[in-house]
Amino acid sequence: MKIAAHLNFIRDGLMKVHEEIYRPENIYRWNDPAGRAYYGDESVYIDRVADRTLMKLVKERYDRYTYISEESGIEVAGNNGFHILVDPIDGSTNARRGVPLFATTIAVASGNRYQDIFAAGLMYHTTGDLIWGYKANAFFNWRKIKFRDDSNVHMTMIGFTANMRGGRVELFKLIQEVGYPRIFGATAVEIALILNQSMDAYVSYPVGTRPFDFMPSLFLVQQAGGKAISLSKYPISDIPLDAMGRFPLIVALNLATLNRLLDILKVKGKPGF
Exposed (0-12), middle (13-18) or buried (19+): which is 169, by Cβ within 10 Å? Predict the structure, then answer.
């Protein structure tokens, strides 16, 4: 398959989910309980609708695949297929409580590690805006995103993971130094907000987040020239797409900001980008 076919799949998948969740017969059922998702979190109707929509399109577009979803888990068809990592609804708690910060994310990879991702996309469902990209290219709708060369430290607005259990004193010192710290409860959205420079950085520490939460948006930030570092035992490039664990990391607009965050937290990371 050529890259255009994968990008068309990402675009169509995001748009189809947007269409399905806003259908009149679905929108009033977003909050309906739907049991537990594969990774253990509470699932609701909006999650399941989005997941079914993406799974159906995967089966239509790919003969061989490994589908990795927060909701339904892992489904394999054939050998040596493309790996498709999805978070059907990132920020589903926001969605069902009326907080307008939630999205769907997709990444397509040739293998099972972060370094194998070659295309990704995200849709903000409250606005319908699409962020997408492939190697060395990232776009907000149809506008190309490329961070300018900048050696300044930017700490006006930084996002933090909602899970801070076990946080050291340095973490709370960092929160005090940030002009406007934010906790939105939607990792993919918060990382993606770096792309239009609404956010200067995102800190997932010490607990970390799962691959489907951060990988698609992280890939897009990388293509735009952003910086990131892993605070787990894995370099970012080696983190498996299907890993069950959580991975702490920092994502930033530029290297100066990233280094300043590391200094305040008094931590050293594994290689990132």
Answer: exposed
